[in-house]
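Input sequence (293 aa), recorded before submission:
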Amino acid sequence: MIILYPQTVATTSISGGASLPNSNGCWDWIGWYGTDFSVKSGKQLAAMKKMIDRITGGFNPINIPKELQVTAVTDNSVSLSWKPVSSAHGYNVYRNGGKVNGATISGTTFTDSNLNSGSTYTFTVKAVSSSGSESSASNSATGKTTGESPAVGTPSGLIVTDTTSNSVALKWDSVPGITTYNAYRNGNKVTSVSATSYTDTDLNSATDYQYQVSSVKDSVEGDKSMTVTTTTLAGSTDNDCYDESNVAHVAALRAYVSFGYTFALGSNQNMGLYSMLQKTNLCKEKDFYYVIA
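Predicted structure, token format:
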């Protein structure tokens, strides 16, 4: 917090027994008369206190609009209304968390246009004060436009990019205008992601899995993609594991060194210091891929 102190008022009088007047009014910001500051007048202190009280006293928040409701829907619009707030200078409307109006709305109704047909939207409204500050959000109101839902593109190019004994990595081509995808394993949805790749983990070894992905836009899910099938690797056996020093692992090209630490080849797991005294049991899951047992 920055406080700007008021300038003192120059005076040639001697008040309250002050030994000297303060004719220049310089540096007398705490409100004392006399160059020896022997008597307190209170003018500057009173002004400073008012200023501090205003800064630290907070403000009265503007009331929250109430009873927001959907009054009408069409194929591409949703109309809203709400109760007025007496101290409001205007209102802002939010759709799915984003502000939709340009200039502040002066009334208590609003029609949001250019929406997708057959789609669901959630709205809130905030009151705006004369200084431009907003209230907290009102209750939410959900409206679904009429008509058929727009076609959502189907992802293409789904491939398996990597497999281990307990994981499968997938990748697919992006769909224009889509930021959410659903991933399916054996016909069951396992997750939603914003990227065009996904790694499914905690799988069983030596097991067949089928995968599909779909696009989601405005809560509408499109058709599932083509199916890809893959088999996780068999689990490690005793013959696939090597319980040796980290130096020996590096020499056998099962690991590598970085900044004095040893990392398993492929999985990049940290095996500890690069030392003859540091032993690690490494198991091979596939060519050039080792994990700590």
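Checked by second reader. The domain at 69-144 is CATH 2.60.40.10 (Immunoglobulin-like).
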